[in-house]
Fold this sequence. Notes:
The protein contains twelve helices and 13 strands. By secondary structure, the protein is an alpha/beta fold. Among the domains are: 1-120, Rossmann fold; 205-291.
Amino acid sequence: MDVLRGEQGTAKSTRARVLKTLIDPGKAALQAEPKNEHDLAIAANNSHVCAFDNLSKLTPRLSDALCRLSTGGGFRTRKLYTDDDEALFDAQRPVILNGIPDIATRSDLVDRSVLSVLQPIPDDKRRDEKEFWTAFNEAHLRILGALLTAVATALRRWPAIQLAKKPRMADFARWIVAAEPSLPWAPGTFVRAYAENRDESIKSLLDGDSIADYLREISLPWQGTARDLWDELEKRIPEEIRKQRDWPAKKPNQLSGHLRRLAPALRQLGIDIQFTRASGGRKRLITIEAIANKAQTSSQPSPSSQGPQNGADSVDDDLAGTVTASSGCDDGPPPVTTGTMGTVTNNPNENGRCDDGDDGDDASENLDLRDDEEEV
């Protein structure tokens, strides 16, 4: 999922419309938020790319449905005017969401998303609708052709690409790495950018979560029941926050469920949450502790590609490792590009043998979709 966020005047809707129109043109490029899973299933059944415009908030149920849609899932409903006949919708679709506030507020949705924070467009660089779409329509086929070249490259290189450490969306990361020779950036750029994006997404998810803030402040290790932790929160977190309608811990069992959702994100920041039973099996315990030597075990980036040095707050180590594309040449080792995310070994023998055609294996059209060119 591509989640676009920004204030008014950042071309969120225009960017979403461009991305959808590139591969799935139609009259209604952008849609309003679906009211329920049934509406989402119908939208997916009639579109290759589902783009939802100007969202303010996602309900937990709709957030879960979007997760199923992005990774593949079905939806059953009773056929109209029948008592026992079912209609089955089964789909997997790319999804684009845009809005001003944080839309992805649940960890499972964040894990499936690439977050883009758009910046305001200065008045002297803004373009009117007719001028922009005329230029886009002229470039549309060239951009699509460049994308298809990248797809062909990814299909050819896919069997040879292996990620030593795989992120949550492992196939997505592997696919882009396989396509990189035909994309307008140096090999290894994507894995670094993807790790930084996941880092920012996790921080955005935890920012403003009072429970996560409290867990980062308490002395660790801590162990007790959900009731014990709930009692501590009652003392430490102001009542006006606890009385809010969307407060996720109105009861101890709700607190336990919220912790399970936060656990993957907190683990990336060096805080581990375990749910166990005390001896005898009657009392359920929550254990919260710091992950030992989190900062020391993180992969060390090369001096030329140093990322943010935030110790336990870095999540780059999840994607660190080696990405290898095997080579069939005997003329020496292939070039290696090292970055924050590890090592990418480029294959000079993309066409299966060492010949003059290898010079053209990485050739592609200049596909430049930078944000500053998507101005309206």
